[in-house]
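Q: I'm writing up a methods section and want to include an example of the input and output format. Could you take the sequence below and give the corresponding predicted structure tokens, formatted cleanly so I can copy it straight into the document?
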Amino acid sequence: MTHRRYARTALGALLVVSCRAGSTATGVTRQMEALWSAPVDIEQRDLFGGPGGNAHAAKPEERYEFLEIKGGGVSPGYDVQDAAGQRWSVKLGAEARTEVAMSRVVWAVGYHQPLVYYLPRWTMSRDGRDTSLAGARFRLELKTHDKRGEWSWRDNPFVGTRQLAGLYVLMLLFNNWDLKTAQNAIYEVREDSAVTTWYMVRDLGASLGASAWLTFGTKDDSAGFKRQPFISRVTRNRVHFASDGGWMEPQLHGSVTPADVRWICNLLARLSDRQWNDAFRAAGYGDSEAAVFITRLKEKIAEGRRISE
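A: Here is the clean output for your methods example:
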């Protein structure tokens, strides 16, 4: 068992020992469930409906009432409300489709995700006037899910665990080049009388393109995604990646072992062709568009499963 040199806290050390050695200690399991839960039903997960299923999906025939312009981030958008009084965060632009597709897969392998959906066309009502708008990501802002803050890749309870390393590898598989604290959310989730905490990478839009060093990469760019390599080399039991997705969190470089890569890639390999197609169909991709991304993702997964120390 390899201990990571950057596991600094007592909790981090405990999680390293338990999670890499296969311990099922109840306290550690509960702590890890704030980030990840074993997807024992992975082959049955509905990647079209996602974690909220079709029952919570945004409705294309709905008239969404404008509340305010969305703050933060580079993608334009709005906060709106539907006829049932539910609040939605709407994101427009190049990140709308990528975020939904990637969110489905991240959730499928056990990581928390908000309820997000894609509408190719939708109607916003503002000051008594209706406007038809193009494709957008709709994120349902549940009253039982409160965002309580952000978390850093370098300072969190899971530093040193396989599950955190696997999450980072997952970001690189999709070429998510915008890894920074502002994209990571901590949620307080209330269910009946219980309150739990979720750590998630909430903003996944800067994905499915080509990454770049110290500059913005591309998004929703099948040609750029297809041509970018995945793994560059392995040295001293550490994997180095071709993607520069972690440049804003430099400690991520050289922090992943081959076993970490195999672990997350083996989970992804359990998804069926139907599930992959459903994930991209939910995000508004046509069959031919989706096939380019899915083919490359499967190539990268196969590469990760073959990697050795």
